[in-house]
Automatic annotation (TrEMBL):
The keyword Lyase applies. NCBIfam families: PRK13290.1. This is L-ectoine synthase. Pathway: Amine and polyamine biosynthesis; ectoine biosynthesis; L-ectoine from L-aspartate 4-semialdehyde: step 3/3.
Length: 124
């Protein structure tokens, strides 16, 4: 059995927020669970080419936007899943941080960080 708290784990600074990687590849579960904070007022261009990701909003608000311009509001209780390795923009509201529980399959090593830039999508 694995029992772990965010207070026991140093957060990974991923660019526009932090991620507590509660389960990683080393745990042998085949998936990763993270508590993710996206800082208010930020936009992150992201794409996971080797992982599928689902995120459940536990607090705050924001949006997820597709390359074709579709935008979806994210508020507490909303889940979104990137089921096709979708390139996307994760946008936190201007007035509050966005808090997510993120699940990745296959599992992350745990030390991955984004390289955010204006000219492309950060990926791992």
């Amino acid at each position: 059995m694995i029992v772990r708290s965010t207070s026991e784990i140093a957060p990974v600074e991923w660019g526009n927020g932090t991620s507590h990687r509660l389960l990683t590849e080393a745990d042998g579960m085949g998936f990763t669970v993270c508590e993710t904070l996206v800082r208010k007022g930020t936009t992150s261009a992201l794409q996971y080419r080797r992982h599928l990701e689902a995120c459940y909003c536990t607090g705050g608000s924001g949006e997820i936007a597709t390359l074709s311009g579709e935008r979806y509001k994210i508020t507490e209780g909303t889940l979104y899943a990137l089921d096709e390795n979708d390139a996307h923009y994760l946008i936190a509201s201007d007035y509050e941080d966005l808090r997510l529980v993120s699940v990745f399959s296959p599992a992350l090593r745990g030390d991955e960080k984004h390289t955010l830039s204006a000219d492309g999508f950060s990926q791992y």
